């Protein structure tokens, strides 16, 4: 299936990478989640043309690709900021003050969880247990995990992600 | 505290590197099986004798699970559940980040034990560091001939593929994990068939939690009797309102009191123990009267709760029990896959009730309503996710009814308070 006209399809390199991923599995649909991350990395989020490009590269129906993509919280069907903050709000972090940490993120960024700052720098999200409870409150920014985050530490953390 | 057989590998990162791991005796167990010094039959028998049980939550005996894999099947798989997401559980992440070779050796042993040539590790997407370390360790093991074709100079082959998830708690449920690994929405499958006869791609599949696999080299190194005599050993994730949260290795059957007050250093100064989840947020909470309970499968079941993933979450008197339970139900609501009605609707109804209770709009009849919805979800959900909601909700209504009542009508005098002589 060709991507909608006018929208950029996946790059040749991305298509090549996806074909390589498909080779790791007995059935090519198994490569769908990793392939969606390849497309997301390239397009910033899963645009309609990125989804179509993945469907085309794996020879899967676009409806199936979209359905799967919409199920998982780390696959983005809407634009996200340059940096994504995942602030754990589950029990162990709650018992260690994550509420105040989340409040500080909200105050500093001026957005509620789920939103992106107007300058496109940060998306703030709640996260469920990150399996880092000995480091509670735990926060993941992009691919970095931060331990024992305090409200006072929030400014310093944000400054690391221009 | 007894000598460590698992956590010793994770200290200082000294065994992250292949050389360090091998120098300390790593991969010797896999080598002895690859070279035929220990047969697959012998290995399975040792696992049975060792008393090793699955560490992902269900506690199924490991040796028995291996026996369920049809021997003659031409294609079989090992699938590793590294989608650690049960609130309060962080032992698998500790093992993967601390010593990825220990997991790789466990996978190689499992594959040889059941005659599988391929293994998939379903790793939580959020384990970015774990993914990097596991990829590096796999590359080392591959170039040293310990993973891939002709491992340890034998004619055996074990290929390992690491597969990252995409953010879904339900993918940690074994049949949903297989769906997700096949590239679909992580919806649980109807069982039977169980994964042993028809798992990944409908082929026989041995599905294990990370920690379970990490125990196997020790069973071989120590022998099943000596291994079993150590408890058998288990990893406990202790977190929440304790001084030293962390993963602790202790014999199965250690008391809850010892885990909290000795291993994890007790509560913070001036704080009082109120309750604890013994096995992740899916297990019914225990109270002070239960502190001397032995943390093993059968004792906890008799106490009306479960060992689950052995994740102890400690709640002190600074916390509001109603908020704690409300948060756990919200979690299950958000993570429900929506496939079955009791879980999808029940979690929504319960969070709506909690919402009004916590916002001063609770009604006296809400407590009976909560009990009724919990009863409606018990034994009726398609998979364990929905079934995880009632245990703690019901236990909290039994032990902390007064806290609920104070939220609903702070000034009223309730029967439960009168009974407690307040």
Give a short overview:
With 162 residues, chain A is an alpha+beta fold.
Search tags:
heterodimer; A: 162 residues; alpha+beta; Glutaredoxin; 2 domains; four-stranded mixed β-sheet; 4 strands; 40% helix; disordered N terminus; B: 422 residues; alpha/beta; Rossmann fold; Ubiquitin-like (UB roll); de novo design (two linked rop proteins); 3 domains; five-stranded mixed β-sheet; four-stranded parallel β-sheet; 19 helices; 43% helix; globular
The largest sheet of chain A has its strands arranged as 2-1-3-4
Mean pLDDT of chain B: 95
Shape of chain A: elongated
Which shape of chain B, going by the Cα principal axes?
globular
Task: Give the helix level of chain B as a range of percent.
Answer: 40-55%
In CATH terms, what is the fold-level topology of the largest domain in chain A? Glutaredoxin
- CATH domain topology of the largest domain in chain B: Rossmann fold
Average pLDDT rating of chain A: 95
The CATH architecture of the largest domain in chain B is 3-Layer(aba) Sandwich
In the CATH hierarchy, what is the class of the largest domain in chain A? Alpha Beta
Strand neighbour order, sheet with most strands of chain B? 6-5-9-7-8
Total E-strand runs of chain A:
4
Content-based structural category of chain A: alpha+beta
Q: Could you spell the SSE succession of chain A in H and E letters?
A: HHHHEHHEEEH
Which helices and strands appear, and what pairs or packs with what?
The complex is a heterodimer of chains A (162) and B (422).
Chain A (H helix, E strand, L loop, with lengths): L11 H11 L9 H12 L4 H11 L3 H8 L13 E6 L2 H4 L3 H12 L12 E6 L11 E3 L2 E3 L7 H6 L3
Parallel strand pairs in A: 1-2
Antiparallel strand pairs in A: 1-3, 3-4
Helix pairs in contact in A: 1-2, 1-3, 2-3, 3-4
Chain B lengths: L17 H6 L4 H7 L5 H11 L11 H6 L9 E6 L8 H8 L1 H15 L3 E6 L4 H16 L15 E6 L9 H8 L23 E5 H13 L1 H6 L3 E8 L5 E6 L4 H8 L9 E5 L8 E2 L9 H6 L8 E6 L4 H15 L5 H18 L7 H12 L6 H4 L1 H11 L1 H8 L6 H5 L3
Helix pairs in contact in B: 2-6, 5-6, 6-9, 13-14, 13-17, 14-15, 15-17
């Amino acid at each position: 299936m060709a991507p909608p006209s006018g929208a950029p399809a996946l790059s040749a390199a991305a298509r090549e990478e996806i074909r390589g991923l498909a080779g790791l599995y007995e059935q090519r649909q198994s490569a769908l989640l990793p392939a969606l991350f390849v497309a997301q990395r390239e397009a910033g989020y899963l645009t309609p043309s990125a989804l179509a490009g993945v469907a085309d590269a794996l020879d899967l129906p676009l409806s199936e690709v979209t359905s799967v993509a919409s199920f998982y919280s780390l696959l983005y069907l809407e634009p996200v900021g340059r940096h994504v903050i995942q602030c754990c709000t589950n029990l162990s972090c709650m018992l260690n003050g994550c509420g105040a940490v989340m409040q500080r993120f909200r105050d500093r960024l001026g957005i509620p969880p789920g939103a992106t700052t107007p300058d496109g720098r940060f998306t703030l999200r709640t996260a469920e247990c990150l399996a880092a409870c000995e480091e509670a409150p735990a926060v993941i920014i992009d691919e970095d995990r931060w331990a024992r985050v305090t409200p006072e530490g929030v400014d310093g953390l944000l400054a690391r992600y221009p | 505290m007894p000598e460590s057989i698992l956590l010793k590998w994770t200290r200082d990162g000294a065994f992250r590197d292949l050389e360090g791991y091998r120098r300390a005796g790593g991969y010797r167990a896999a080598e002895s099986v690859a070279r035929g010094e220990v047969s697959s039959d012998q290995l399975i028998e040792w696992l049975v004798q060792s008393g090793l049980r699955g560490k992902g939550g269900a506690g199924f005996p490991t040796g028995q699970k291996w026996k369920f894999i049809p021997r003659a099947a031409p294609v079989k798989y090992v699938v590793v559940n590294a989608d650690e997401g049960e609130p309060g559980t962080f032992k698998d992440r500790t093992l993967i980040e601390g010593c990825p070779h220990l997991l790789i050796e466990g996978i190689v042993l499992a594959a040889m034990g059941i005659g599988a040539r391929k293994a998939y590790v379903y790793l939580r997407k959020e384990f970015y560091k774990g993914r990097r370390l596991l990829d590096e360790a796999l590359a080392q093991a591959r170039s040293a001939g310990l993973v891939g074709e002709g491992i340890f100079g034998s004619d055996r082959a074990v290929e390992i593929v690491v597969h990252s998830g995409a953010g879904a708690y339900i993918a940690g449920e074994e049949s949903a994990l297989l769906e997700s690994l096949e590239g679909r929405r992580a919806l649980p499958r109807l069982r039977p068939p169980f994964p042993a006869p028809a798992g990944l791609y409908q082929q026989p599949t041995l599905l294990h939690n990370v920690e379970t696999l990490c125990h196997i080299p020790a069973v071989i190194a120590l022998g099943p009797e000596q291994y079993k005599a150590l408890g058998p050993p288990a990893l406990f994730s202790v977190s929440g309102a304790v001084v030293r949260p962390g993963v602790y290795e202790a014999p199965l059957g250690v008391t809850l009191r010892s885990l909290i007050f000795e291993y994890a250093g007790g509560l913070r100064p001036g704080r009082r123990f109120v309750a604890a989840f013994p096995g992740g947020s899916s297990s019914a909470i225990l109270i002070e009267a239960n502190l001397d309970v032995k943390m093993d499968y059968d004792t906890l079941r008799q106490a009306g709760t479960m060992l689950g993933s052995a994740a102890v979450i400690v709640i002190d008197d600074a916390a509001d029990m109603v908020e704690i339970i409300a948060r756990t139900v919200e979690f299950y609501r958000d993570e429900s896959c929506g496939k079955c009605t009791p879980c999808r609707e029940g979690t929504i109804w319960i969070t709506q009730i909690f919402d009004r209770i916590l916002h001063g709009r609770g009604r006296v009849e809400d407590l009976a309503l909560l009990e009724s919805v919990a009863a409606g979800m018990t034994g009726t959900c398609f998979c364990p996710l929905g079934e995880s909601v009632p245990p703690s909700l019901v236990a909290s209504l039994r032990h902390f009814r007064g806290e609920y009542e104070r939220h609903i009508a702070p000034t009223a005098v309730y029967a439960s308070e009168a009974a407690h002589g307040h």
